[in-house]
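Good morning C.,

I know you're traveling, so I'll keep this short. The sequence:
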Amino acid sequence: MKPGEHTLTAFENFMEGIWKQNPVFVMVLGMCPTLAVTVSAINALGMGLATTFVLVFSCLLVSVIRNWVPKEVRIATYIVIIASFVTVVDYAIQALSLGLYEALGAFIQLIVVNCIILGRAEAHASKHPPLTAVVNALGMGIGFTIGLFALGGVREIFGTGTLFGISLFGPGFQPWIVMLLPPGGFFVLGGWLLLFAWWKMRKEAKDGA
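The tokens, ready to paste straight into the viewer:
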């Protein structure tokens, strides 16, 4: 640790991905699955939990072997590790829920190239011990899941009038079909980003007062 550098506590390390560096609302990473699969809350949770599983276990393994991997092949090694856990998730979802597997489609396999996972492996797990790497990865995965659910929940509520398939407004509700289309994903994401930007500016103004 460098002089004057602040060491994060376990709680701060965990909360980093949920709040300060939320992958969706702060770093705006993983936008392809974020916008593509969040047409329903269950799809959002499925993708979020799958990504969290891959993120946690790949970061754990990267941290364990970090001192034995030559720097020349570290990225290739990380990709092989991530791909292995993605394969596990792919078969697990296919076995547990064929409907969810078909809804998520190719985006399960595309977890391999999700920049959140490779970024955590390279920037954090390869430089920290296993427990610290797992705590950080878990927080980042939960933060990503929260982001997906925030989009998926809103799009399902307004797009079909349901949440997890449960009707909220009765038969008289007129669905907003645009919410189930690609523009709907951009509208909802933009709304959330605007809300967080407003809250941040309000907090900064309050702290500066």
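Safe travels,
E.
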